[in-house]
TrEMBL record, chains A, B:
This is ArsR family transcriptional regulator. PROSITE patterns: HTH_ARSR_2. PANTHER family: SLL0088 PROTEIN (PTHR38600:SF2), TRANSCRIPTIONAL REGULATORY PROTEIN (PTHR38600). Residues 1-93 form the HTH arsR-type domain. It comes from Cellulomonas fulva.
């Protein structure tokens, strides 16, 4: 469970489109720094700085094997910000959520059973 | 639907514990600036600056009636960051989500029907 300063860091890390693009890429699997840098159209030092912010926030971890540094997402790193946002929904929105979840669930209806 | 710069602003607005405290208070209903300032232990200008960041991000709106400025949450303002975070969960986490939602839904079991 993140404390307030941990949540500060995670939300700050996500407040930049390039860093969100890195997260979106890493959801699909680990990637080298070079692979992550390719679509970002910025200098390697700039990319490394973004990666440092993501690592400092506990969202990304990296491992150097030989000459290649591979980054991956830290499992569960986005759970706390997700939970915080979910808790801030207005009462009316929460009722709609429950209705939507109920309609989306594949619960057997009387007709089907 | 927020663009990248809109998402930047929302996540930035949420990257501060005092601003998150304001959001948590406003989920329970509109409040005057004075009410919002009370638990924050900071100067009124500092509170107003935080409110300006939340307003700029489209999370909070305010209305001045007489001498009192009342703030409220903008409905749906947190939908896009919530959706973005939900989309970034790792495949294994998503499978657990679905299992959890299924178990939590009050779907009738064969025993009950």
């Amino acid at each position: 469970m993140l404390n307030q300063s941990g949540l500060d860091k995670v939300f700050h890390a996500l407040s930049d489109a390039s860093r969100r693009a890195v997260v979106e890429r890493l959801v699909r699997g680990p990637a080298s720094v070079g692979t992550l840098a390719e679509p970002l159209a910025m200098s390697l030092p700039a990319v490394l700085q973004h990666l440092a912010v993501l690592q400092d926030a506990g969202i990304v971890t990296s491992q150097k094997i030989g000459r290649v540094r591979t980054c991956s997402l830290v499992p569960g790193a986005l759970t706390d910000p997700t939970a915080w946002l979910a808790a801030q929904r207005l009462p009316a929105e929460r009722r709609l959520d429950r209705l939507g979840a109920h309609l989306a669930s594949d619960h057997p209806t009387q007709e089907q059973s």
